[in-house]
């Protein structure tokens, strides 16, 4: 079996206030992604969301059900999103091959039986970042390139948050049950993402940071609006954001991140924005 997984249980805002740096990182940081020839998962108890990766090098990697799912196939009761952050590769879904280049996405619907990840070149392997959520309906598998995504230009250079948002696996682009994924690229000279910050009590979120230059880092802020904490992240690390928490980061350089979320509402704009001056 080429699959590794860990389970993370849900934490409430009162317990969160007592966490030191190690506890914060143990509970919310995902730092074991992009392992060669492995599929890696973190199974969270926030909306039963899963975040992981698949990096096929010597061998193709087949998606396997892990024990917490209590299912014969991984997608028996789930949907899956994949975004390639490495070299070109393919995802084969029940015999149909979907070519995936850098920053291409693929949505795979509930009920798909066999999913295989493959790299075109072992020296420059595909690196698939994966998110999964429970699903109640089987929607069609669909590929979405960066050019096909819904594109939003947000922020400004004056406030150091000029960024381009690519909505990839999202209502209006792809039909899903609850999974939503996309990518945000910060422009040169900008370092703040998702600012002003917000919370959305009816869904949780995971951020995956990449294109973080060597020797640079991102400081990710989380917690209630009036009592925030921070976690330092490196390239190819992710962080879990509970529904009661803001999720915003500032880097020592510009970078790119993938956001993924699931919960009760598919409305992308269903959020409560926090005034910057109210953050504590």
Automatic annotation (TrEMBL):
<keyword id="KW-0862">Zinc</keyword>
<comment type="pathway">
    <text>Glycan metabolism; pectin degradation; 2-dehydro-3-deoxy-D-gluconate from pectin: step 4/5.</text>
</comment>
<dbReference type="GO" id="GO:0045490">
    <property type="term" value="P:pectin catabolic process"/>
</dbReference>
<dbReference type="InterPro" id="IPR007045">
    <property type="entry name" value="KduI"/>
</dbReference>
<dbReference type="Pfam" id="PF04962">
    <property type="entry name" value="KduI"/>
</dbReference>
<dbReference type="GO" id="GO:0019698">
    <property type="term" value="P:D-galacturonate catabolic process"/>
</dbReference>
<keyword id="KW-0413">Isomerase</keyword>
<dbReference type="GO" id="GO:0042840">
    <property type="term" value="P:D-glucuronate catabolic process"/>
</dbReference>
<keyword id="KW-0479">Metal-binding</keyword>
<comment type="similarity">
    <text>Belongs to the KduI family.</text>
</comment>
<dbReference type="GO" id="GO:0008697">
    <property type="term" value="F:4-deoxy-L-threo-5-hexosulose-uronate ketol-isomerase activity"/>
</dbReference>
<feature type="binding site">
    <location>
        <position position="200"/>
    </location>
    <ligand>
        <name>Zn(2+)</name>
    </ligand>
</feature>
<protein>
    <recommendedName>
        <fullName>4-deoxy-L-threo-5-hexosulose-uronate ketol-isomerase</fullName>
        <ecNumber>5.3.1.17</ecNumber>
    </recommendedName>
</protein>
<feature type="binding site">
    <location>
        <position position="205"/>
    </location>
    <ligand>
        <name>Zn(2+)</name>
    </ligand>
</feature>
<dbReference type="InterPro" id="IPR027449">
    <property type="entry name" value="KduI_N"/>
</dbReference>
<feature type="binding site">
    <location>
        <position position="247"/>
    </location>
    <ligand>
        <name>Zn(2+)</name>
    </ligand>
</feature>
<comment type="function">
    <text>Catalyzes the isomerization of 5-dehydro-4-deoxy-D-glucuronate to 3-deoxy-D-glycero-2,5-hexodiulosonate.</text>
</comment>
<dbReference type="InterPro" id="IPR011051">
    <property type="entry name" value="RmlC_Cupin_sf"/>
</dbReference>
<dbReference type="GO" id="GO:0008270">
    <property type="term" value="F:zinc ion binding"/>
</dbReference>
<feature type="binding site">
    <location>
        <position position="198"/>
    </location>
    <ligand>
        <name>Zn(2+)</name>
    </ligand>
</feature>
<dbReference type="InterPro" id="IPR014710">
    <property type="entry name" value="RmlC-like_jellyroll"/>
</dbReference>
<dbReference type="InterPro" id="IPR021120">
    <property type="entry name" value="KduI/IolB_isomerase"/>
</dbReference>
